[in-house]
């Protein structure tokens, strides 16, 4: 048995079976380490959106604010006021964007289902947030390439997603049981991403990853030519 599609991050066809549960099979790319669900076992867009619609996203939920502060606090330490940011995959209740707006920054919103505004994907941003999103993406290479193209030089892309540790823990991992989760990253996978996009990677806690786009190389001074 083999997956019907190559790895969505690096396009490698060198793929190994990783795990199977009662719902689906999980595959791991031998090159970048991404663990993913094959196209043949993914939900339809309609099924996926129905699950998202059932989620409660209360902008006044203090527990949800504390959860998102794991992203906002290290990000705010890096930003100058006011900065222009994009919350990619903001969902129906864009609380993180509201928190960053409250802190003095300007936010644009994009979400395939809830804020489908393609015009915001043509700008340049001082930072981009992508929280609990990348694990839903079938073709993460396409999305990451797009997001890096929207970042200004030296700007951070801040992601939140749970990380794969090993097979034993994956087998009992609740995170994989959400059928909208189809791509699972590890530290190895994000190290691959950082190398491909020539970016710095920093891991904060168990689920926050900051990828910083490189600065544009400084042109040599005319005095030295």
Topology, pairings included?
Elements: E1 15-20, E2 25-29, E3 35-36, H1 45-53, H2 62-76, E4 84-88, H3 95-102, E5 106-110, E6 127-131, H4 140-150, E7 156-160, H5 167-171, E8 183-184, H6 187-196, E9 200-204, E10 208-212
Parallel strand pairs: 4-5, 4-6, 6-7
Antiparallel strand pairs: 1-2, 2-3, 3-8, 7-10, 9-10
Helix pairs in contact: 2-3
Keywords:
225 residues; alpha/beta; Rossmann fold; globular
Would you write up a description of this structure?
The protein has helices at residues 45-53, 62-76, 95-102, 140-150, 167-171, 187-196; strands at 15-20, 25-29, 35-36, 84-88, 106-110, 127-131, 156-160, 183-184, 200-204, 208-212. The chain has 225 residues and is an alpha/beta fold. The chain has one domain (15-215): 3-Layer(aba) Sandwich (Rossmann fold), CATH 3.40.50.150. The chain has a six-stranded mixed beta sheet with strand order 5-4-6-7-10-9, sandwiched between helices. Strand 4 (84-88), helix 3 (95-102) and strand 5 form a beta-alpha-beta unit. Helix 2 packs across helix 3 (95-102). The longest helix is centred in the N-terminal third of the chain and has 15 residues, at 62-76.
Query: What's the level 1 CATH class?
Result: Alpha Beta
**How many structural domains does the protein architecture include?**
1
Low-confidence region ranges? 218-225
CATH architect. name: 3-Layer(aba) Sandwich
Could you say which structural class the secondary elements and strand pairing correspond to? Answer: alpha/beta
- What is the distance, rounded to the nearest whole angstrom, between the alpha carbons of the first and last residues? 60 Å
**Assigned CATH superfamily:** Vaccinia Virus protein VP39
Shape: globular
> For the CA atoms, what is the radius of gyration?
18 Å
Taking the sheet with the most strands, its summary is: 6 strands, mixed
Count, helices: 6
Please tally the β strands and state the result: 10
Mean pLDDT: 93
Helix content: 25-40%
Arrangement of strands in the largest sheet: 5-4-6-7-10-9
Protein name: Class I SAM-dependent methyltransferase
GO molecular function: methyltransferase activity
Pfam family, one: Methyltransf_23
InterPro entries: SAM-dependent_MTases_sf (IPR029063)
């Amino acid at each position: 048995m083999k997956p019907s599609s190559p790895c969505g991050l690096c396009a490698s066809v060198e793929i190994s079976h990783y795990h199977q549960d009662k719902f689906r099979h999980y595959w791991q790319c031998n090159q970048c380490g991404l663990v993913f669900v094959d196209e043949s076992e993914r939900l339809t867009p309609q099924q996926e959106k129905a699950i998202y619609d059932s989620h409660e996203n209360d902008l006044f939920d203090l527990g949800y604010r504390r959860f998102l502060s794991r992203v906002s606090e290290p990000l705010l330490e890096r930003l100058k006021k006011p900065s222009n940011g994009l919350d990619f995959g903001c969902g129906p209740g864009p609380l993180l964007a509201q928190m960053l707006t409250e802190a003095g920054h300007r936010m644009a919103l994009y979400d395939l289902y809830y804020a489908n505004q393609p015009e915001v994907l043509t700008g340049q941003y001082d930072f981009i947030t992508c929280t609990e999103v990348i694990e839903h993406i079938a073709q993460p290479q396409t999305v990451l390439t797009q997001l890096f193209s929207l970042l200004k030089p030296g700007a951070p892309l801040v992601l939140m997603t749970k990380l794969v540790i090993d097979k034993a823990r994956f087998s009992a991992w609740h995170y994989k049981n959400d059928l909208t989760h189809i791509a699972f990253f590890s530290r190895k996978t994000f190290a691959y991403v950082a190398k491909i996009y020539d970016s710095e990677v920093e891991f904060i806690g168990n689920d926050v990853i900051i990828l910083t786009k490189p600065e544009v190389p400084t042109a040599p001074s005319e005095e030295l030519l």
